[in-house]
Amino acid sequence: MSTQWTRRQFLTRVGAAAAAIQTFEHLDFCCVLPADAQTADKDLFEFKPVADGVYAAIAAPRYKVNSNAAVILTNDGVVVVDSHSKPSAAQALYKEIQGVTKQPIRKVINTHFHWDHWQGNQVYAAASPTLEIITSERTKENLTRPDAGVGGLSFIEKQLVNVPKEIDQLKDEIQQASSPEQKARLEANLQQAQAYLEELKQLKPALPTRTVASSVTLQEPGREIQVLLLGRGHTDGDVYIYLPKEKVVATGDALVDWMPFLNDGYPEEWVQTLTALEQYDFTHIIPGHGEVVPKANLAFFRGYLTDLIASVKKAAAEGASLDEMKKVIGDQLAATYEQGMSKYPLGRYRDRIGQNIETVYQKVVKKS
Ligand SMILES: [Zn+2]
Ligand SMILES: [Zn+2]
C-alpha cells in the first residue's frame, strides 16, 4: 500500500517543485508539466475507496505524469477507467487491484486520447485476452490520426524524438546546478526521464476495441455503468463514466483539480458540456488529475473557464495586446482561482494562466 504524505510534508515540497517545473515550461507535454522527482513518493498511486466496490487510484506526482484511474468492481470482473502514461504504472495498479479481487479485468475505458491516459492499456490487454477497450469513436480516430494533439500513436513518435532532447537538457542542467540539492533533484528527474524513454521504446500500444458514438449503459453484473458523451470539451472525444447508484462520475481531464490544459480543447463548448454533466445526480468526482472532489467543484472549475473566456474577449475588444492580457487577467482572476487551482506541485495557477489566456485568445477570439 502507498504511504500517505502528511499535509506538512506535502506543503514543504511544493515550493521546490514549483521552481523545478519552471525549467520545463517550454515543453509541450499535454495535461501537465513534468513534476519534480523529489515530490514523488516511491509509490505511484494512492488507492482510495470512493463507494462500495469503487476505487480511485490517485496518481502521485512524477516527473512524467500519470493520470488517475477509476476502478469499478462488478460481480464477475473489473472495469478500469484510464491506464496512465506507461505500462509500469498500469502494472503497479493491476497489482493493487489484484489485492482487492482476483476477478479478471473485463474492460478498460479511455476517457480521451492524451498520452497520460492510455499508454498503459497494453498491460490489461496482456492480462485479459478477452479485454474490451472502450472509448468514443472520435477518441479512437484521434489515437490513430497523424495530426492529433498530445496523444495517440503519432505522439509516441514525437516523444521518441523529444524525450532524448529533454534528457540532454537535463544533463546540461545537472552540469550547471548551483547547489547539491538542485543537482540531486535534477538527477532524479533524469533517472525518471531515462526510465520513461526505455518504456516508450518498448511500447506495444493497445488501441480501443470498441467505440461508442453516443451515451450507452454498460450492464455489468451487479453494476450499472454509463459511458456519457456530452459534447466537446477538453478534447473532441471526451467520455464521462457515470455510476448512477453510487453517484460517482469519472471525468478524465474534462475536470481536474488543478489548472486545465486547453490546447486540444474547445473552451466555450467545454462550459456547456460541464453544464450538461451537472444535470446528472452525483456526489463525487474522480477527476483526471488531483484528489477526489465533491460535485461543488464542477461549478468552481467551470467558473474559471467562463471567467477566463469573458475576460479575454473583453480585453481583446478593448484592444489589449496578448502580453497585457496575460498580466492583467492573470492578476484579476487570481483572487478567485489562484488558491483553488494551486493545491499540488503540478498544474498550478501561475504556471498555467499565461498559456491558458493565450490559448483562449487563439481559439475563441482569433478562432484559429
Ligand atoms: Zn491528463
Ligand atoms: Zn488530457
Distance between the termini: 47 Å
Share of helical residues:
40-55%
Strand content: 15-25%
- Main structural class: alpha/beta
Radius of gyration: 20 Å
Tell me, rounded to a whole number, the average pLDDT.
90
Quickly count the helices.
Answer: 10
Strand order of the largest sheet: 1-2-3-4-5-6-7
The number of E-state strands comes to 13
Sum up the overall morphology in one term: globular
The distinct ligands, each listed once, are: zinc ion
Low-confidence stretches: 1-42
Order of secondary-structure elements = HEEEEHEHEHHHEEEEEHEEHHH
- How many strands, what sense, and barrel or not for the largest sheet? 7 strands, mixed
Description of the structure:
By secondary structure, the chain is α/β, with parallel strands linked by helices. It is built from ten helices and 13 strands. It has a seven-stranded mixed beta sheet. The chain has a six-stranded mixed beta sheet with strand order 8-9-10-11-12-13, with helices on one face. The radius of gyration is 20 Å and the shape is globular. It starts with 6 loop residues before the first helix and ends with a helix. The N terminus is likely disordered. Bound molecules: zinc ion (ZN) (2 copies). The site of one zinc ion has 7 residues, from loops. One zinc ion binds next to loops.
